[in-house]
Amino acid sequence: MRAAALRLFARHGFAAVSMRQIAAEVGVQAGALYLYTPDKQALLFELMRDHLEELLADWRAPDAAPVAQLEDFVRHHIRFHLDRPELVFIAYMELRNLTPENFAVIEGLRRDYEDRLEAILRAGQQAGDFAVPDTKLATMALIAMLTGVTTWYREGGRLDRAAVAGIYWDMVRKAVAA
Amino acid sequence: MRAAALRLFARHGFAAVSMRQIAAEVGVQAGALYLYTPDKQALLFELMRDHLEELLADWRAPDAAPVAQLEDFVRHHIRFHLDRPELVFIAYMELRNLTPENFAVIEGLRRDYEDRLEAILRAGQQAGDFAVPDTKLATMALIAMLTGVTTWYREGGRLDRAAVAGIYWDMVRKAVAA
DNA sequence: GTCTATACTGGGATAGAC
DNA sequence: GTCTATCCCAGTATAGAC
After folding, report:
1. What's the CA A143/C1' D7 distance, rounded, in angstroms?
2. DSSP code of residue B130
């Protein structure tokens, strides 16, 4: 059910997908879905929450210099996001369709992730490795740039994942370099 | 009507907004809207098309060196997007809700805009001013980074527009520098 | 655990009065 | 040009049979 909801939400948007469609994709009638979820909102919220919790659980800053930490972050971010383009899409596009309480939870998780990148940038700034006039702005700019890879990358295209990650890392490294 | 639709689509999403809501915002009954638009889809399409056409009409590359062209592009892009956060949001988020024919038109306009940035990067690469391993990737990365400013910038915040544009330009300049 | 059937609400769009 | 009224269809969610 979750896989079907994920696919349909990503393709058509949460508001445009009906419980009937999800049921058809699963191969049951709509009523049967309510054995597994209290409502459609919970389906969306749990997809987003689990996605962000996995993102946070999957990566910790290595015990290394800021530049090495940043490279690790960039390469992990790209790999993780390219592995889950549909979840990434939903987690960004469907924020408006969360109830206020659910939105607050998701925003908190997103903030936790941003804080990790900002901590790296601040450490590198203080160590003199980076020249970043504003670490918060740089955090937002870099995450937007990196996450954008999911909008254009296609498997089997001109560049493979390693090449893409290498080029992004090159741009990030130069952008924040002292 | 267009202003009301813009506001509501940006806040709740195209699929979640009803013609009745738009009518209420305008101060008429739903039926009256059909004097001005054939249907809800046209309302969305025209908002997006006019937005992108204005983006294209509003900027031409100045007759200057690639670095100066790039700076002009970056500052214009940020100014234009910060002036229209709702249109920017819709033009990206609601692509899925366009009919295939309308989607093709919007995609063409978007491509035209990307091509302008890519032309600058290619010229700078050939002139030896830039070191960009892949101009298409760099184009997508830079546009994602710059457009992301609309997701966090708030008027009256810690940084004003000029400061924000300056910091973004600094990151862009360094990211593509030879 | 899944189905059929349905309650209830609301959607887009149109007709015809004024 | 706008309103009221309505058509027809689809939505979420639930009840009760099997």
Report:
1. 49
2. B
Mean pLDDT of A31-35: 93
Domain that holds residue A83: 41-176
Chain segment B135-169, per-residue pLDDT in tens: 999 999 999 999 999 999 999 999 999 999 999 99
Q: Which of residues 22-61 of B touch strand C (CB under 7 A)?
A: 30-31, 34, 38-41
Contact assignment for B148 to A141 by CB distance below 8 Å: yes
As a whole number of angstroms, the distance between CA B54 and CA B56 comes to: 5
Q: Are residues A120 and A56 in the same domain?
A: yes
Nearest nucleotide relative to A27: CA against C1': C2
Q: Taking CB atoms and an 8 Å cutoff, what residues of chain A touch B144? A: 144-145, 147-148, 151
* Tokens, residue A10: 């990503």
Alpha-carbon distances, residue A21 vs A2, A10, A25, A43 (angstroms) = 13, 13, 6, 14
pLDDT tens, residue by residue, B4-23: 999 999 999 999 999 999 99
Q: Which residue pairs from A128-133 have beta carbons closer than 8 angstroms and sit at least 24 positions apart in sequence?
A: A128/A178, A129/A65, A129/A66, A129/A67, A129/A177, A129/A178, A130/A66, A130/A176, A130/A177, A130/A178, A131/A176, A131/A177, A131/A178, A132/A176, A133/B167, A133/B170
pLDDT of res. A178: 95
By Cβ distance, the residue of A133, A170, A177 closest to B167 is A133
In this structure, the answer to whether residues B1 and B76 fall within a common structural domain is: no
> Which CATH number fits the domain that encloses residue A70?
1.10.357.10
Helix (H, G, I), strand (E, B) or coil at A87: helix
pLDDT digits (tens, 9 = 90+) for B77-110: 999 999 999 999 999 999 999 999 999 999 999 9
CATH code, domain carrying B4: 1.10.10
Closest Cβ–Cβ partner in B159, B172, B176 for A137: B159
d(CA B20, CA B1): 12
